[in-house]
Design brief:
single chain, Alkaline Phosphatase, subunit A, alpha/beta, 10-stranded mixed β-sheet, 4-stranded antiparallel β-sheet
Amino acid sequence: MPKPTRRHLAVATALVAATAAAAAVTVTSSAGASDSAHQAKAAIKGGKAKNVILLIGDGMGDSEITLARDYTVGANGRLAMDKFPLTGSYTTYAVHEDGTPDYVTDSAASGSGWATGVKTVNGRISKTPGTDKAVPTLLELAQKKGYATGSVTTAELTDATPAVLASHATDRSCQGPADMAKCPTDTLAAGGPGSIAEQSVNHKVDVLFGGGRKRFDQKVTDGAYKGLTVTEQAQKLGYRVVTDNAGLQTVKPGQRVLGLFAPGNVPVEWTGKSAAVGGTDPQRCVTTNPNRPAGTPSLVDSAAKAIQLLEAKQKHSEQGFFLQIEGASIDKQDHAADPCGQIGETAAFDRAVKLARDYAAKHPDTLVVTTADHGHTSQIVPLEATPPGLSSTLVTDEGQKLKVNYSTNTPGQSQEHTGTQVRIAAQGPQAYRVLGVTNQTDLFTTISEALRLR
């Protein structure tokens, strides 16, 4: 076991003192803090984790969390993600090819940061910024150590955040065999690893759940699987392919599974009026979506099945599993200035957070981390404000009006990411590492230390 550093010992000592003081006070507020002292004491013990569940709310900055909290559980309520015993912040910047900071990251560079521990340029997938060389990822290292692995998302499985774990690409757009224009050296014909879809199944990840069926329906152009679709390639590699919740629930432990639940991104759960110039009339969000096909599994359904399958595979092993779960369309609805779609996806993500925390309560050797890849545009502003961009007024579950503003780009254009630090929270072995203000690349170290990957 690695020897604790002076910083880690100092953090642990300070936290012991703080939690001892907290334990002497009975906390009865709705914040759910009454058990935090006990959880924090357990978390600072460090040690090895059998499992890691990493939850990524794409674009889920503090504004996005606050908006979902205010709307769904109230200003004094708490989401599941608010109840972790240990919470900090981390910085999210990308870099230019020369290593200088690029202050606003995209999901490819940010995901590559925690997946590899190396910062890179925007648009790149788990490759170096200057030399464009592949860097080993957490998933690859976990596989080498005998862990089961999985990735669950509401985006296309070839989108940036899931892609950073199981592929290496010069550009995030190189999602399927027909999408390789920006990755000439990554093509199979050039001796490269192929598209993100091909690499994902070639990595033999145990569980892959998300959207993006159209990428996997593309035909492989070179190599051993030439002429087959990527889906057919996956089946040759031992994957069972499912396309809806009924198929998902029939999957038994012991086989790799590829769940493709939509042609593109998985449709969002909630709908409503998008923000507009001059605002909208006060609205309640609609908690259904007529464009979401019946039988589409929810994020929490997919996450629960992934945990079940990965745990069953490792039942008789000392090593457990590494699972990443992404709520992807928090970001996508923020880009679209759609507050109801955004809140619904944050609420769906929060249910997956609760699932992970409930699992860890029964399996305390599980490290659970929740964070975001970057901040985004939505801001809660005074009702009397007249924002220059897009805004919408909502009527919350508390019966109060709330105005949300989207002004990081010209109306009619996609709203932009922001360069702010974002929340990171954790429980379980090595969770104390998230305390304070850390760097996004430090998350790679936290997980690799917890699983003893190095």
